[in-house]
């Protein structure tokens, strides 16, 4: 192997390593920016229009976010302002763990790279079992990663831009990923169910499931500005 080729090989490896490192560093702030943009710019009109948009509700099709695909896809959407496949339905906030995210319709890539996604077509806030899924990341401050720090009694707030729904956490469990019981109605209760992977690793077999019971609603959105932003 010639000296010239060795130098080229070392330089190439260094460049590849640098690119991988930069991709990893960029992915987290881009995700945060996208989520914050959706939260800050959400309006009742946008939510109403989303009711007519189709969405993917196939939970088995959800793929783990990796830095390369996340950074490229998110950066492209951010620069181009592409939200064609994104249908906002509201916001979710858990102040005690600094979680504040947009809720999108379905479980598509644009939805889950920004925040929470709804798990069925006909669910309604404040009714039955309102179930949402989100990604767990290596940065435990973004997307649904803060669920790992939720405690019993923590308040969970949802809004559909018409009302605010207040839930109090009463259950937090780690269950196998195929545990569909968590999506069933809970007799005598109106609940919210939040689901994420138990770790950021590929093929994680378990899910963190947080449940809250509805304790009140309000039509005064201004009262909750400090929670939702």
Automatic annotation (TrEMBL):
The lineage's top-level taxon is Bacteria
Q: Which InterPro entries match?
A: Sortase, Sortase_A, Sortase_dom-sf
Q: Which Pfam families match?
A: Sortase
Question: Does the record bear Metal-binding in its keywords?
Answer: no
> Keyword annotations for this protein?
Hydrolase, Protease, Thiol protease
Spell out the protein name for this chain.
Answer: Class A sortase
The species this protein was found in:
Pediococcus inopinatus
